[in-house]
Amino acid sequence: MRALIVDDSSFIREYLRHLLNRMDVVCEEAKDGSDALAVLAAAESFDLMLLDVNMPVMNGLECVKKLREARLGPAMKVMMVTTEADHSFITTALDNGADEFLMKPFTPESLREKMLLLGVIAA
Question: Does 43 have pLDDT greater than 80?
Answer without folding.
Answer: no
